[in-house]
Amino acid sequence: MDGAIKGRISSFQTLGTLDGPGVRFVVFMQGCPLRCACCHNPETWDLSGGKEYTAAEVAAKAERYREYFGKDGGITLSGGEPLMQPEFAAEVFWLCKEKGIGTCLDTSGCFLDEKTKRLLEYTDYCMLDIKYSTDEKYRKYAGCSISQPLGFLDYLNANGIPTRIRQVIISGLNDGDDNLKSLAEIIKAHPCIERTELLAFRKLCASKYQKLGIAFPLADVDETKQKTVSELQEKLEKIT
Ligand code: SF4
Q1: Is the pLDDT of residue 122 over 90?
Q2: Alpha-carbon gap, residue 122 to 125, rounded angstroms
Q3: What stretches of 83-165 show up as alpha helix (H) in DSSP?
Q4: Whether the CB of 124 sits within 6 Å of ligand 1
């Protein structure tokens, strides 16, 4: 690996604190095969969008913020879906690890092929979305089978990769007790999960959809109150 491989990137965020442990340099990669109804970044869907960078350029950008990373922080590849460009992502992580920078993959877990497994060899930490707890909802509101992220999670567990689960709570879709119970079962079966974050559904992204001329599927659904999310988070912690 020489860092020359090119990848398409939507944007960068310096000093992020929400996308992995500690302070992160976050890379929003271009391309996603899913079409989540609650997606906040529809501008990243098209793999031919964004701008091209070499893996070496991305690793060098991350290195500039090294002094802020401390012992927990580092680079996060997010998106979009980083697994759409697995060879590029693997090379960015490999270069970062050579420089002593921690690596975090933020993914929907929609692929688990050999290229993905190679990327996971260089992944210190994973942020995995478990969006719903039934296959029906996954297929309808995300565009893949629930077996894909669950299979991905099994692999993370088998390989001892520390993982944070995230779930956006959407009124009427996954805010019920049945969803919480299923999520708790998933958490208990995977000791690699060190934390689960429930997040409130927000509609700040509606203007992005308008700009792109794409219908926002959840335009008529109310935003989720933080109080509801906090109550669910508390309940979840009691049953896990
Ligand atoms: S996986 Fe992420 S980027 Fe892709 S559609 Fe879903 S929320 Fe959007």
Answers
A1: yes
A2: 9
A3: 86-98, 114-121, 135-141, 147-158
A4: no
Instruction: Spell 42-57 as b/e; 16+ CB within 10 A means b.
Output: bbbbebeebeebbbbb
pLDDT for res 189: 98
- Mind listing the pLDDT tens digit for each residue in 12-39? 999 999 999 999 999 999 999 999 999 9
Model confidence at 1, pLDDT cuts 50, 70, 90, reads confident
- Structure pTM? 0.97
pLDDT in tens, 69-104: 999 999 999 999 999 999 999 999 999 999 999 999
- Domain borders along the chain are 6-239
CATH code of the domain occupying 6-239 = 3.20.20.70
CB of 93 closer than 8 Å to CB of 122: yes
Do residues 105 and 124 lie in contact, with contact meaning Cβ atoms separated by under 8 Å?
A: no
What is the spatial order of strands in the sheet that 102-107 belongs to?
51-54, 6-16, 24-29, 74-78, 102-107, 125-129, 163-169, 193-200
For residue 168, the CA-to-ligand 1 centroid distance in Å is 12
**Ligand 1 in contact with 166 (CB < 6 A)?**
no
Q: Could you give the CA distance from residue 102 to residue 69 in angstroms, rounded to a whole number? A: 9
Atom 6, ligand 1: residue with shortest CA distance: 36
177 C-alpha to center of ligand 1: Å?
25
CA triple 145-109-12, angle to 5 deg: 135
- Centre of ligand 1 to C-alpha 85, Å, is 15
Whose CA is closest to atom 8 on ligand 1? Answer: 39
The verdict on the CB of residue 80 being under 6 Å from ligand 1 is yes
